[in-house]
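== Sequence, structure tokens ==
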Amino acid sequence: MSVVYAASRVVALLLVGLYAGGVVFVVLAPSVARLPGPAYVRYWQALNTDYGRAMPPLLLAGIAALVVVAAWSWRRGWFVFGLVAAALIMVTLTVVLTLSGLDSLNRVVDGWDPDLLPDGWEETRRQWLGLHLVRSALALAAFACLVIAQTFDHG
């Protein structure tokens, strides 16, 4: 097995796993969604700052590693290649979903005064949580694909 392929596999697995864990935490912490409006919006705004800074480089590096792994896994058989390609597609879909839906909702919320929430703010939260659930499922499925690919790739 090539050193580049082996290293890229580890990097892709770690970065996609870190990403999946980060987005799944929100799903696993339902108490956060039950916070009173002002507290929830402050939490949301703080996460937007931290995630907005950390996620783009993490995802770009993860996608780059996945592209390398996909290119090398072509010779590892259809099963391994298919799993890696599926992981790459799913991570890319999470980026598309983030850019096309979640980011616009985040920008709206970032402009709110937590102590003077607009009417219907709960609907914005509901929309965001629904999109985030889809993103989390995609990220977890991508991570699972990489774990299975690594398990079956006997180089």
